[in-house]
What does this fold into?
Amino acid sequence: MKMTKVLITGGAGFIGTHAADYFLERGNEVTIFDNFSRKGTRENIAWLKEKHPAKQIRVVEGDIRTVGILDKEVRGIDLLIHLAAQVAVTTSVKNPREDFEINALGTFNLLESVRVNSPETAIIYASTNKVYGEMEGLAVEKGESGYKYVDYPQGVDEQQNLDFHSPYGCSKGAAEQYIHDYSKIYGLKTVVFRQSCIYGTRQFGIEDQGWVSWFSIASILNKPTTIYGDGYQVRDILYVTDLVRAYDLAFQKIQMTAGKIYNIGGGRENCLSVNGLLDKLSPKIKPVYSEWRPGDQRVYVSDIKKVKAELGWRPEVDADQGLAKLIDWTEKNQELIAAIL
It folds into this structure.
């Protein structure tokens, strides 16, 4: 059986670490490419090397903003998972140029490296539900447990109009469309996942990004918490191992999935409001409420029927199980988390 060669940009981050772990467990050769700007990335690499001491793992330090830096790395790669990104809406508002250079220009550099040097490489791109913007045309009502769509009980599907909102939404949306177009124009084997809220262990969440992890950490380490908005905003949440499994299925079925875009998330069965999460974590938490942030959606729920039908995939870890895993890991790694954050 041929060993699959996998390259993961942003591979030392939260999702990247789980993707590397997944493919290493299956005996594949993994190269991690990361600029190590995010807190916790070096600790993640140390964990991977400790868990897989004899496995095929390479670590390359670099920045996708550098033209041609991936030219050599992509050659001979079977699967490229593109996770390297600026990931916070608030950061994009503060520094839109950097956000653009990382997310849009960095992705363009990656595509050119693959097009010129390794056009047979399959590319999976981690996009975001933020490409749909605030979806102002969809009727939303506020229920006891949170906001919900009036006319879309299963959530938003891939036919929803794009409406990039915030510099982050623009940069990720532009990158997504370049990824998609390079499949149509140059025949690259690309797959786009518009991801909802992904959570899990080894996610060193902060206030601006990774809200499920951040509130879990804050509740255990007794950190002050702020809710932007009224706390009734709802998201579908997906445990990280289920996401990585979807990446693998898309790669295994690349002749069918190439050129396609999928919504991916926990779906209607795994929805949670911010207030609902805090209730599950600790009744002692007394958050401060502040103004809504730019680009915040009252509700976002992924309709995942397409990815279910075409990949034969569905979430295996429900919200309660996933939260239990995350809380257990957080409690056992309080010293590590406190040192990093």
